[in-house]
Amino acid sequence: MTAKTRVSTDAAPAPAHTFSQGVRKGPIVQVSGQGPVDPQTNEYLFPGDVAAQTTRTLENVKAIVEASGATFDDVVMLRVYLTKREDFPVMNEAYGAFVTAHTSSGVLPSRTTVFTGLPREEMLVEIDGLAVIA
Predict the structure, then answer these.
(1) Cβ within 8 Å of residue 25, ≥6 positions away
(2) Which of 46, 68, 41, 69 is nearest to 56 (CA)?
(3) Each residue's pLDDT tens digit, 10-61
């Protein structure tokens, strides 16, 4: 039986609460929800700018995926949580640019987008992900 292991990297923000940045079990990697946080300072970045927050958040997800031994091409699912429906087009454009640039296979991950409240007022977006290492 494959052991469950914690995925941790300094290239993404440290968890603020009682959870791991990511967890790997066999070929499956689950990345905890990430926000627009600078991994060096743990400060929330780009207040009011959903495009910049989306890009920073995806950079954090990518760093955790890579720390697990996977690549962004191994990501099969991303879940995006937005605080405002009207931010969807701007988020979608930034998301599309990032995901397309980092998916060399051309097979983009599946995605779900949910509109909800988030833990911090300055957070406009949170993203988690699932990767399967081939």
Answers:
(1) 2, 3, 4, 5
(2) 46
(3) 999 998 788 999 999 999 999 999 999 999 999 999 999 999 999 999 999 9
